[in-house]
Amino acid sequence: MSRPSILVFFCFVLLFSCQQREQIPLEDDGTSTLFRENLRPFYHGVASGDPLPNAVIIWTRVTPSAVQEVEVSWEVALDQDFKQVVQSGKTNTDESKDYTVKVDVTGLQPNTVYHYHFKAFGNKSMTGRTKTLPTNDPGQVQLAIVSCSNYEAGYFNALGRIAERSDLDAVLHLGDYIYEYGVGGYGDTALSRKNLPTQEIVSISDYRTRYALYRLDPDFQKAHQRHPFITIWDDHEITNNSYVDGAQNHQPEEEGDYNVRKSVARQAYYEWLPIREKKELYRKFEYGNLVDLLMLDERLAGRQMQADSINTPAYRDSTRTMLGDVQVDWFLQNLKESEAVWKVVGNQVIFSDLSFEKIFPNRPKNMDAWDGYPFEKKKIIDFLKDGGIQNTIWVTGDTHCSWAFETPTSIEGYLADSVAAVVAVEFGTTSISSSNYDERTSMDTVKMVEGLYLQDNPHLKYVDLSQHGYLLLTLTPEAATAEWWYVDTIKEPSSAESLAQRLQVMKDGKTLSSGL
Fold this sequence. Notes:
Layout: H1 3-22, E1 46-49, E2 56-61, E3 70-77, E4 85-93, E5 100-105, E6 113-120, E7 123-124, E8 128-131, E9 141-146, H2 157-164, E10 170-173, H3 204-214, H4 218-226, E11 229-231, H5 252-255, H6 258-272, E12 283-287, E13 291-295, H7 325-337, E14 342-347, H8 374-386, E15 392-396, E16 402-408, H9 411-416, E17 422-428, H10 443-456, E18 460-464, E19 469-475, E20 479-487, E21 497-506, E22 513-514
Parallel strand pairs: 9-10, 10-11, 13-14, 14-15, 15-17
Antiparallel strand pairs: 1-2, 2-5, 3-4, 3-6, 6-7, 6-8, 9-19, 12-13, 16-17, 16-18, 19-20, 20-21, 21-22
Helix pairs in contact: 2-4, 3-6
């Protein structure tokens, strides 16, 4: 081998070795600076989710020192000292599950706080806290609603503040739990937070590593440790603007078969999230007779490819679907049969009409939102109106901004009779950290654009395009109250937050009123 060839060979070996070290190790080989030694081998914390009146999923991940099958024991107790253990058991995990552990703990009591932990290799995990659903009138249900947690865009300070709350029944994560891009692809390159793996994620190992990175974040860990999560995916858990048969950010010639990518993304999601594994992700949670929570899957269950524009011939076609026929039927049937005071819809993309015409004249509608699927959207609106279904609340993520709508049958109908036309309300949560308008333009421009949105959308009652944080939804037999809580920064760790807006809708009411 010639001297230049030898040099090239050793450079390749060095590059390959560096790339290997950029991955979070599946086993604890002592090289990861992201691992906190006091958490060994449960470096990724604990989590709970999908609560029922008598059951809840508890989760952890074990990081062994070698490839092996690992026995993990677990306990659930009424007290933090585990003197009142009510359920316990053992389970095994291995590399086929990415060493994740999920237990569906049954035989629990309704509307009860429980504590849980895991044991392996002679060590104990941190103690988690969770809560089951009520079966009668709980008096109040309080949900923290989040979306769009982008590791490279900033710190997850909002999740840290959610972890500190003692008044929550659950956290709803409405999607974009992770982002698929490589280092510098979508975030703030001035921050020290860098994606692992460094390339865009495509393989099962890639997706697992990305989840592992996110779940090493202290604020993400604390939020999962403190509260049960109810989650749904949006597009970035797979890749941008995904649908059943493809995605905007998937190029088959470079990234292979989309169905394979979709399959491994789904597998990693189920491995790393405290969620029951069923054929479909859409599902229902009942908070006694006060709230029915319907979580929709607007990506992989039935969504067809987005239309290019409102001028596309197929745009209004009756066969174009966001949810798919089976999910639509399930959704409408559950709305019809619900006897709960409030019907809350966990929704990824904005449902209400939203005109962009004054801001983006060439793109007056968002084709990736419900405005891009007008026939199916009208079917749902007509069902709510014709069926006299009251007290429906859409809670929405995706946009990285805050919104509050009185959702009408049509804008024309709203202008004619703003009360009679309203069939629901919609509250949009901003992002945990993903960029919004002020990262791209001046605050003067942000305020101007907010004004244009309000001018062009009379049913829009609140908009904020620049803050990061979470939505707090409080539901009682009399009223539903939405509060937008914002952190002071995402560019460094911070414990500061503030209440920016409070809006309320009364039971059987249709208008939003300010509570500040």
